[in-house]
Amino acid sequence: MSKELGITPRGENFAEWYNDLVKRAELAENSPVRGSMVIRPHGYAIWELMQRALDDMFKATGHVNAYFPLLIPMSFFAKEAEHVEGFAKESAIVTHHRLKEGPNGLDVDPEAKLEEPYVIRPSSETIIWHTYKNWIQSYRDLPILINQWANVMRWELRPRLFLRTTEFLWQEGHTAHATYDEAEQEALTILHECYGRFAEEWMAVPVLAV
Fold first, then answer.
1. Is the pLDDT confidence value at 2 over 80?
2. What domain range includes position 36?
3. C-alpha span between 20 and 7 (Å, rounded)
4. What is the DSSP letter of 110?
5. 48 part of a folded domain
6. In terms of Cα–Cα distance, which of 27, 45, 12, 3 is closest to 160?
7. Which residues contact 193 (CB under 8 A, 6 or more apart)?
8. CATH number, residue 137
9. What is the pLDDT of residues 17-72, one digit of tens each?
10. Residue 128, domain member (yes or no)
11. How many domains does the chain have?
């Protein structure tokens, strides 16, 4: 039956079966941008349902949504050794801000080089916490319970539709608290009341929360 539908049998080649199934169901397809995908309407409808369910759970626990820039100054990453180590090999960098006509069409204008390169967001943590330091003047400004729905870019060597792509949709929560106990309780609340519930009740995936 699989071959009749143009789908590689799962027992024959699992990776090809998966890719064939995603494409045949019109969920997503490869794009001209290496490692990135086009999410088709059926696939995006699934994302919208997932996002809506999780967003309701986040808001029920007191979180609010915000948005932070896609481009992050290189210096922000340089200050955070952990981020340099974690994302140095996966980052895409913006070095110029203008194109110009060249002998073979459009080309990068060498005179439009940025004074400081920008990293296309692999995670927003550095720019979010740079912002928080201006928001938090005392314990009276806490807690901060922020969630962001965004896209990120991490240069993937072996992309797979929905599993490992260069650009993908996601959410990231970043909270700040006055005490360790409050931060610990926040982590447990998100684990059990949001991620755990979502995995079990919406995705039918059993969860072992540790």
1. no
2. 26-71+121-202
3. 5
4. G
5. yes
6. 27
7. 57, 60, 61
8. 3.30.930.10
9. 999 999 999 999 999 998 999 999 999 999 999 999 999 999 999 999 999 999 99
10. yes
11. 1
